[in-house]
Design brief:
This protein is mostly helical. Helix content is about 75%, strand content about 0%. Helix 2 crosses helix 7 and helix 4 crosses helix 8.
């Protein structure tokens, strides 16, 4: 995510749409990627991204510069994505269809493009096995590269809670990987 000057943030908070557009250009890719990793769905990530920018636009004047803007955006994105995931996880038919698609990958021919796609689908399938809180911590730590402290600030949770969620998530992923034969 690109750095955004305080001047642009203040101007956008005052209603300057050009400044808000600068914020959007600098952060939209980041917001989408975090949302996609948490929701495991392109469509849901697009919806979350749109909702995040509505929230940023509505609440930018409340941003107090106590934390970094990046941390503030992380928090909004992760919370919005978790809420979206909780809503969509009730749709069992969609999950069953996804699980069937993952199982059919075992029969796919091995090519470099197919291998990459298969690996991405495996990661999505494994992340889908975690609860949304664990998934958010794993995504922020392992994919986005945040420190434990940054994760705790972003999610507004205790540092030990971050450690606990990551430990449980990793143990679950290792167990699933060993059962499937992905890990030895």
């Amino acid at each position: 995510m690109q750095d955004i000057s305080d001047k642009i943030l203040v101007q956008a908070a005052a209603g300057d749409m050009d400044s808000f557009h600068e914020i959007y250009k600098a952060t939209s890719g980041f917001v989408y990627n975090v949302a996609h990793r948490i929701t495991n769905s392109r469509e849901d990530a697009e919806d979350v991204t749109q909702e995040v920018f509505l929230k940023i636009h509505k609440n930018l004047n409340n941003f107090q510069f106590r934390s970094s803007f990046k941390t503030w955006v992380y928090r909004i994105t992760v919370n919005t994505a978790i809420n979206a995931t909780k809503k969509t996880s009730k749709d069992l038919n969609r999950r069953v269809d996804f699980d069937k698609a993952i199982q059919s990958l075992g029969d796919a021919p091995k090519e470099s493009g197919v291998d990459k796609e298969a690996n991405e689908l495996k990661v999505k399938a494994l992340l889908d096995k975690l609860n949304p809180d664990q998934r958010a911590c794993v995504v922020l730590r392992e994919i986005e590269g945040l420190s434990y402290e940054e994760i705790a600030k972003s999610l507004k949770i205790n540092l030990n809670t971050v450690r606990s969620r990551l430990k449980r998530a990793r143990a679950m992923l290792m167990n699933i990987g060993q059962k499937r034969g992905d890990l030895k």
